[in-house]
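Our collaborator T.R. sent over the components below with a one-line note: 'Predict the complex.' Nothing else. No constraints on interfaces, no templates requested, no preferences about which chain binds where. So this is a plain run: every listed entity goes in together, and whatever single assembly comes back becomes the starting point for the next discussion.
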Amino acid sequence: MASLRQIKTKISSVKGTSRIMSAMKLISAVKLKRAQDLLMAYRPYSDAYQETTLNVAKRCDPESHPLLRKTDEPKKLHLVFLTSDRGLCGSFNSSLIRKLETYLVADTKTYDEVTFSFLGRRGRDHFAKEGFKASSSYIGITERNYTEISEKVSEELTREFIKGDSDEVILVYNYFKSALIQEITYEKVLPIEASSESEDENLIDYLYEPNKKGILSELLPKYIQVRVQRAIQESMTSEHASRMTAMENATSNASDVIKNLTLLYNKTRQAMITTELMDIVNGTEALSKGDD
Amino acid sequence: MADRIHLKVITPTELVVDEQVDEVVAPGEVGEFGILPGHVPFLTTLHSGELKYKIGNSETKLVVEGGVADVRNDTVSILTDGVKEN
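Returned assembly:
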């Protein structure tokens, strides 16, 4: 049985850890609040942007802009993979990585070539170990710089797509459903194509001002940027939510551990007292027997 | 045909206007344009400038910083980078 001192040290170390974890939980809660506010404000904008763009794409001939180009048999796939930079956020990164690995094995057979962009250290490091080469990677994405980063990423994606180095671009990230639920999401952003479910035959084309070409070349690249930025924000908000939940679980786990250790400590102490008492009683008995 | 237009003014950080209005005047790329109910689908980029809309007799003015205007089915969506209220 462990000595009293050992148990005591263990209790205080667990207490220390649990203090750190509950502090991290509080920090994540604050960060989550801020990221969530930004995300909720951005969602209507990006949704509206998407609606407008897809509406335009539905009415336009795919020939009218390179970003609308459709390939019958896409051969080159570009995956943009969003993870976090830091760990301690539960299964946020690991489940995303696992899902992507299964996807790579199962669903990418039809492609000749798969390239990657990594946003976030965790995904990059994992796939670097596996020997995947990234065409680009970004780390250190925060609330302050995600607009610039999304601009850079989308510019690269657009350039590559126009050059013909990729036929399809898919974003993989955690979609923020609520503080408790995050959903792994695959989103095809390029080529830009409207869902064909609502087949309105009498679509009237827009009047474009100043002209169709000018508008498309302004609208479409910006649309890619909006989608990338939205994905970054979703992923960042999910990360904070996931970390908050993980830290909350860890804190309550730690208090269970402390409870058990304290119980063990008290039991050991009681056992020691009992043994000591027995020693004394036995000693006195032996002495008094000797007196008789 | 609806007798009013649904106007939405949205920026990356906020939903500024979401209302039924009677008339919208916006600063288009090639000049100011007005939208009344029943307008044909219309898409244009915007200049920085004044966006006006009327509800009954009261007129409201906003300053938009560029962006896109999407007019479709009596809905006007103004997607702009920023808005300053006058």
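Summary for T.R.: DSSP finds five helices and six strands in chain A.
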